[in-house]
Amino acid sequence: MALGDGIRRNIAQVDPAERALFRDAILELHKRYYPGTKTDSPPGGVSWWFKQDEIHQATHVHGGPEFLPWHREIVNRFEELLRQINPQLSLHYWDYKDDPRNIPNGNIGGGNVGTVNLFDASFMGSPGVGAAGDPLLTAGFYDPDAGTAGHPPDRDATGNSVDPPSVITRTLGPLAAGASPSPYITAAQENALFTLPNTSFGPGLSSNDNGDPAFVAIVPNYFRTRLEDMHNLSHVYFGNVSPHDAFRDPWVFLLHSNVDRLYAKWQTDPAHPERLDPATVYGSESNLDVNVNFFGLVSLQNMTHNVEPWSTGHGEFADIRPWGPVTTRTKAASASTKWRTRSTRRRTATRCSSMTCRRRRRPGGRRPSGSTPARTRRSG
Ligand SMILES: [Cu+2]
Fold first, then answer.
1. Which CATH architecture best describes the domain 7-365?
2. Distance in Å, CA 243 to ligand 1 centroid
3. pTM value?
C-alpha cells in the first residue's frame, strides 16, 4: 500500500500518516483562493474548498440519469485539487460496510491492525450529535458566530460563497461505550447492487420525479437508481443534511468516492463489456429528456447535455466562475475561448478519451470514440 501509487483505497486501510496528509490537504484547500473579489458577480476570491459547495449548489445533479457521471466528474476534479497540494494523494473512500466510528480491522500504523475511528478531531471531526468541530472549526470551514459582530456574514444569509456557513452538522453521535459498530450496509447489500438483473443503466422513464409512482417502483430494480438510493441514505447515516448543504462537509467526498467505486466496480464486471462502452452504458437513457424533481428542485436531465459548471460556467440553478475572470457571455458564446482557456480545453479533450462514462455534450457535438477503463487509478 504505497503512498503515491494513484490507487484509491478504503481510507481506514491506509497508513495513519497518509490519513494525516489527506486531512492536511483538505484543510489547505481553504487557504487557497480563486481569482477575483467577493463583490464580483458571480463572486470571486472563493476558497478552493468553498468552491465545492458552490459548484454543487449551482448544479444539483440528483434524482436522474446524470447523477453518476456528474458526481464522477466532481470527485475526479476534487482529487486533482488534492494532488495540486500533494501529488502523492488519492481520493480514498469510506466503505459503507464500515462504521466510521469503530473500524476494528483498520490500519493503525507500523504494520499493525487495530481500531480506527475516522470521526475525531485528528481526522474528520466529531460524529455528532451537533457540529463537526475540529479540525474543521479551527480551519474556518464554518463559523458558529457567522453573521454577528466581528465575524463574517453567514453564507445562508448572503448566498455568497466567500462567506462561511454557520455549521457543519453531524448526527450519528458517538458509539456508546462497549457498543458494537453499526455499519451503514452489509456486504450482502453491497453485493446485491452488482447482481441486479438489469444490464442497462436505467429504465428510460421520462420522469424521475421522486413522487412519481412509476419511478418509485423501479428504484430498487436498476443499478443507477438503486445506487443513488443507497447514496441518499448514506448521507443521512452520518449527517442530517439537506442535499443543498451536503458539500460543506469534507466527509462527503469520502462518501462520494465510494459511490464512484461502486459505479466503477459495476462497470468493470467482465461479463458486461457494454458497461464500459460509452455508446451502451447508459442504455435507454442515452439521449432521453428526463424531468427530475428532487427535493423540490426541478431540472431537465439528458445525458447529451454539457457537464456543468465545468463546460461553460452555467449551472442549472446559478452561474459560476470556478477558474477564470468574469466574462460577459451569451449562451451561444459560452463555448468561446474567452471562457474556456486553452488549457481547460486540452484537459477536457484528454478526459473525454479516458473516462469510462460518456461525457455529456451538446446535441450534435462530437462524441468521444471508444472507451478505456477509468484513468490509471483502481479501486482497491
Ligand atoms: Cu451525495
1. Orthogonal Bundle (1.10)
2. 7
3. 0.84
